[in-house]
């Protein structure tokens, strides 16, 4: 149990109607009481709210007695009142941190927040570190590690899909899945370890065939959770889309058409989009991050060179590639070479035949037929005719993008969105596979027990059953102060 009493601003640091300072620790009620002019908080019931003032002078015991007496109206005059506040008292253990906690709601000025924090610190509290409230909730056993992480995800959620996934995790979604897997494996591990105790007698408590069946089931479940990460990651972090094409193909115009605002600079001079521009478009709750890049081509211009290099890097990290071409300024072979060079199985490539307004909306002509015969069916891609300038074909493009997400959706109720969980699941899968190999290879019971322990440990990392200070520090330092 942590003895320090910590305090921090829990609301955003800026002007607001109300700001909230959170105080947690054994002494929190006592400390706030010392600077609170109003009811004696030490006598207050849990989960109650009290009106009063935070004052800059410590309130002496005699005054507390007056507050506590029948003659509550005879309040002593206030010394240095800082603000009129509402104070909520939460008594252990039914609090966020499981410790005594107080929340002070004040008029939302950063200056007032600073003054109140100062007076709390003067009276024995200390400033909380980033994520320290949530870390206490975890260390005191109120939530597990994946739930703590989901709180950060909830705060960061920017759309419906990521909010829902984070909330499911907070409600224990992944914890439940993992504890079922661990529970089954643990039973077997205990039996195998029992065998070790009776090594001399050559007995087999753990039915190897049943263990194999369980391992297969576990493996399937792990794979399915691991697979859900692609979707989870897309809804949490968005999908990177690279817009590529020769200079003047219409990349900036397309970006503007997608975003409906004149953000990227459009010009007739080849190579004006020097650097990359990133813009986000939400389609059905998923963030698509568009990266408008300098055209990929041979260049002697040094500044352009940097842009071209960046474009290549961006394609590497992108999940979707929009390749724009203007048939009057390109050849099918150029497009074909490009696609062949950048093709990856996990990259969705959409060819955009731009400026179809110049052909009376007509596309899929010889140019496109040449592309199709050279690229299909080995290089999965499709062609959409658009006019970035007239905003034709933009809806077709958007539905193609949202289809990308639909294809990733999984039957899993629990979706992995967290890189750390993803990695722990992969390690678990590796060790489950090793256990399987071990059984088939008739290895010693000792080694089997050893591999099983590893599998259990990796699974336990997700909920924080097995963890270390470095991992914890890493997770909680990313939280904001006050959370
Ligand atoms: P970027 O270099 O690929 O970013 O190309 P821009 O977006 O700057 O466009 C280059 C030129 O092509 C500009 O003059 C645009 O107005 C023009 N342009 C872009 N899209 C279209 C289109 O669909 N139709 C026509 N007619 N012109 C377009």
TrEMBL record:
<keyword id="KW-0630">Potassium</keyword>
<feature type="domain" description="TrmE-type G">
    <location>
        <begin position="238"/>
        <end position="406"/>
    </location>
</feature>
<feature type="binding site">
    <location>
        <position position="272"/>
    </location>
    <ligand>
        <name>K(+)</name>
    </ligand>
</feature>
<dbReference type="InterPro" id="IPR006073">
    <property type="entry name" value="GTP-bd"/>
</dbReference>
<dbReference type="Pfam" id="PF10396">
    <property type="entry name" value="TrmE_N"/>
</dbReference>
<feature type="binding site">
    <location>
        <position position="103"/>
    </location>
    <ligand>
        <name>(6S)-5-formyl-5,6,7,8-tetrahydrofolate</name>
    </ligand>
</feature>
<dbReference type="Pfam" id="PF12631">
    <property type="entry name" value="MnmE_helical"/>
</dbReference>
<feature type="binding site">
    <location>
        <position position="267"/>
    </location>
    <ligand>
        <name>K(+)</name>
    </ligand>
</feature>
<keyword id="KW-0342">GTP-binding</keyword>
<feature type="binding site">
    <location>
        <begin position="248"/>
        <end position="253"/>
    </location>
    <ligand>
        <name>GTP</name>
    </ligand>
</feature>
<keyword id="KW-0963">Cytoplasm</keyword>
<keyword id="KW-0479">Metal-binding</keyword>
<dbReference type="InterPro" id="IPR018948">
    <property type="entry name" value="GTP-bd_TrmE_N"/>
</dbReference>
<keyword id="KW-0819">tRNA processing</keyword>
<dbReference type="InterPro" id="IPR027266">
    <property type="entry name" value="TrmE/GcvT-like"/>
</dbReference>
<dbReference type="InterPro" id="IPR005225">
    <property type="entry name" value="Small_GTP-bd"/>
</dbReference>
<dbReference type="InterPro" id="IPR004520">
    <property type="entry name" value="GTPase_MnmE"/>
</dbReference>
<dbReference type="InterPro" id="IPR027368">
    <property type="entry name" value="MnmE_dom2"/>
</dbReference>
<feature type="binding site">
    <location>
        <position position="273"/>
    </location>
    <ligand>
        <name>Mg(2+)</name>
    </ligand>
</feature>
<keyword id="KW-0460">Magnesium</keyword>
<feature type="binding site">
    <location>
        <position position="483"/>
    </location>
    <ligand>
        <name>(6S)-5-formyl-5,6,7,8-tetrahydrofolate</name>
    </ligand>
</feature>
<feature type="binding site">
    <location>
        <begin position="267"/>
        <end position="273"/>
    </location>
    <ligand>
        <name>GTP</name>
    </ligand>
</feature>
<dbReference type="Pfam" id="PF01926">
    <property type="entry name" value="MMR_HSR1"/>
</dbReference>
<comment type="function">
    <text>Exhibits a very high intrinsic GTPase hydrolysis rate. Involved in the addition of a carboxymethylaminomethyl (cmnm) group at the wobble position (U34) of certain tRNAs, forming tRNA-cmnm(5)s(2)U34.</text>
</comment>
<dbReference type="InterPro" id="IPR025867">
    <property type="entry name" value="MnmE_helical"/>
</dbReference>
<comment type="subunit">
    <text>Homodimer. Heterotetramer of two MnmE and two MnmG subunits.</text>
</comment>
<feature type="binding site">
    <location>
        <position position="142"/>
    </location>
    <ligand>
        <name>(6S)-5-formyl-5,6,7,8-tetrahydrofolate</name>
    </ligand>
</feature>
<feature type="binding site">
    <location>
        <position position="269"/>
    </location>
    <ligand>
        <name>K(+)</name>
    </ligand>
</feature>
<comment type="similarity">
    <text>Belongs to the TRAFAC class TrmE-Era-EngA-EngB-Septin-like GTPase superfamily. TrmE GTPase family.</text>
</comment>
<feature type="binding site">
    <location>
        <position position="252"/>
    </location>
    <ligand>
        <name>Mg(2+)</name>
    </ligand>
</feature>
<keyword id="KW-0547">Nucleotide-binding</keyword>
<keyword id="KW-0378">Hydrolase</keyword>
<feature type="binding site">
    <location>
        <position position="248"/>
    </location>
    <ligand>
        <name>K(+)</name>
    </ligand>
</feature>
<dbReference type="InterPro" id="IPR027417">
    <property type="entry name" value="P-loop_NTPase"/>
</dbReference>
<feature type="binding site">
    <location>
        <begin position="292"/>
        <end position="295"/>
    </location>
    <ligand>
        <name>GTP</name>
    </ligand>
</feature>
<dbReference type="InterPro" id="IPR031168">
    <property type="entry name" value="G_TrmE"/>
</dbReference>
<feature type="binding site">
    <location>
        <position position="22"/>
    </location>
    <ligand>
        <name>(6S)-5-formyl-5,6,7,8-tetrahydrofolate</name>
    </ligand>
</feature>
<protein>
    <recommendedName>
        <fullName>tRNA modification GTPase MnmE</fullName>
        <ecNumber>3.6.-.-</ecNumber>
    </recommendedName>
</protein>
